[in-house]
Amino acid sequence: MATILGISAYYHDSAAALLVDGELVAAAQEERFTRKKHDAGFPTHAVAYCLAEAKITAAAVDYVGFYDKPLLKFDRLIETYLAFAPQGFGSFAKAIPVWIKEKLFLERDMRRELQGQYRRRFVFGEHHVSHAASAFFPSPFEEAAVLTLDGVGEWATATYGHGRGNHVTVTHELRFPHSLGLLYSAFTAFCGFKVNSGEYKLMGLAPYGQPRYVDRIVGTLVDIKDDGSIWMDMSYFNYCQGLTMTSSKFADLFGGPPRKPEAPLTEREMDLAASIQHVTEEVMLRAPGRRRGPQLCW
Known about the structure:
- The protein is α/β, with parallel strands linked by helices.
- The chain folds into three domains: 91 residues, 2-Layer Sandwich (Nucleotidyltransferase, domain 5), CATH 3.30.420; 49 residues, no CATH class; 107 residues, no CATH class.
- It has eleven helices and eleven strands.
- The strands form three sheets. Strands 3-2-1-4-5 form a five-stranded mixed beta sheet. It has a four-stranded mixed beta sheet with strand order 8-7-6-11, covered by helices on one side. A two-stranded antiparallel sheet has the order 9-10.
- Strand 9 and strand 10 form a beta hairpin.
- The C terminus is likely disordered.
């Protein structure tokens, strides 16, 4: 019997899942137990729930899997800070101590959180492969095209590949800083909502506006290729080197500073939401997985 405990933690929406002989026994988000929205800590309660459902302890687990590769992510952070230096020192000074103290030693911390009961190896999967696996393996397909798009994992921001049997293979990837997810999050922040939390609010706002800014977005901020890949003009963004998503050029392009949280919503925010929603849909409709393969997982 192979028992695998999957853990997502230390970023947002921590969770755990347990598989026994390839069958999902239990899965839960930590916020459901702590009542702390988007809880990012180690999913202590979620892990305990999963183990209880299987009637085992952590000592009986064969593998613990984590959703990305911290060293590769750290490599991306360091290279990005070097590329923009001396800009970004404030962001650097805030982020690096956390990495040096905690995020580079996740195996040590997770072993401690599991109370020393788990003594076997930890498996660190690449971020987008983890996304792909979570879509393909529970699906009814023996073979499928697999498309993933998000903010950023280690370096990849979108990937395309295929799943066959018990394997997922990535054949193409789009790399940071060009990212559909980060583009959407930039508009989320500019419209006064919280990144990694308020994107659903931006999507909900979209039907109330008109896509008046589509040509401005596509003509200035982002170039959309025929295959769905994108190139972004980074002078309008600040997430590589700063503590905000957008730069002053972004504000100038859209007629003024970002909306402050809890300020009244105006027609501008509604139209921006409608516009970026339209652009997002256009990118996804062009993505390779929409045109190839008998099935698609994403």
